[in-house]
Structures are given as C-alpha cells and as structure tokens.
Amino acid sequence: MEENKEMSIQENERNMDKKVILVVDDEKPIRDILVYNLQKEGYETIEAEDGESAIKLALASKIDLILLDIMLPKVDGLTVCQRLRHTLNVPILILSAKDEEIDKILGLELGADDYITKPFSVRELIARVKANLRKAEVTGQLKGQAKEEEKEEAKSHNLISLGELTIDLDKFEVRVRGDVIDLTLREFEVLKYLANQPGQVVTREILLEKVWGYEYYGDIRTVDVTVRRIREKIEKDTSAPKILITKRGVGYYLASN
User: How are beta strands 44-48 and 65-69 bridged, if at all?
Assistant: First the structure.
C-alpha cells in the first residue's frame, strides 16, 4: 500500500514538471498529429478548435507554449496572438498554410515568437518547440533571479552603458536618453547580446542561434522584424538609426558611443 502511494506521488511530481502546450487548429486531423507527437515527446496538451476557445483556455490554464493556427473560426489566429500577448508571457508559434511574406511579418509584429508554414516536418516543429521552451525557461529563471536580487536590495547593478543606451541586466531594464523602454524579453535579449560586444557586427544567423536558440530551423527574417520593432522604440529616426546599426549584407551592431 505504501509502495503504491509513493509511486503515485512520484507520478504526480513528474506530471507537475511536464510542459503544457495549447494546440489551436480547427482541423482535427492536424490537431491529432500535433497532440500525438507532442505527447510522445513528454508534453501535456490542451486543444482548442477556434480562436474564442483558445483565448479562454489560455487565460484559464497554466500554459507554457501555444501552437496557433492563423485561419480559425470565430476569432482569427492573428487576433488571438495579439490579445494573448498583452496578458501572457509564453512563446507563441504560429502555424499557417499561408506562405506570403506579409503574413509572417504581421504575425511576428503582433507578438509571435516563431512562424511555421504548413506543411511542416514534425521533426522541425518539435525542434522549434523545444528551442522556444528552453529559451523561455532560461529567461524566466534569470528574471526571477533579478527580482530576488531587487528584494534583497543588491548593492550595485550590472549596467552596460553605450552612449544614449543603458541596459540594467539585474533589473531587465533598458533606458534610452533616461527613459525606460518597454521591450519584450526577446527584444531585450537581442539588445543584451549586441551590447556585450559593442561596435562588433553580428550576423543574423548568429543572432538567431544565440537569442532564439536554434541554429538550422529559423527564418532570418524573424531577426529583421525584431530589430525593426526595437528601433521603433529606441531610435529618434528609424530611417537613420544612431544606436542599433545595420551593416548592409552582414548583420547588426550597437554603436559603441
């Protein structure tokens, strides 16, 4: 009896450690394929077949990642993404049969972390899921540590200052010309990575690998969209940036002064 009780406790602990993924797609065969393969990898899944249900489930459940189709009944996927991004800080991976540039850019600008075009390979999808979960977990741990340090009134802050730009690594805070800038975690990570090597050009591929966490499956346009969002927040004139600079044909760098 005691042995069964101990096994039950261990099983519950394992279940608590499982990542929960919300799968949103109006086509049941696709949901079934996604759910089967995600559960095979050890994830728990929750399913929604329309945008309205997806929003309710995401807000009512503890979700670690969302796989979100664009073409959904009731509320479309892009609207779902936009609404949830204001409330939830979890990776959102858009799935869509659309392969047009404008759809990808719009999805990323509305807050999606990644974009996967149907038909996709299961291996690629799982790789991206793992990469985004890993990145979110590491970032969350670092942010938690920073909060604890604030509570303990740390004696000094780990600051990077480059001209008008100041990055407080302990507070996860960016200031430009003294004003606090509201950045997503991904945008903060891009700036932090570039700030650690000011004046040095970093390729899109390296940024994709180091910040997004996967080397082969990403789309470098994801980097371009994120950089554009950052510039809109930190530059006086986005057409002539002075802080986050493009080295044409190579990549990006932060001005060192």
Answer: unpaired
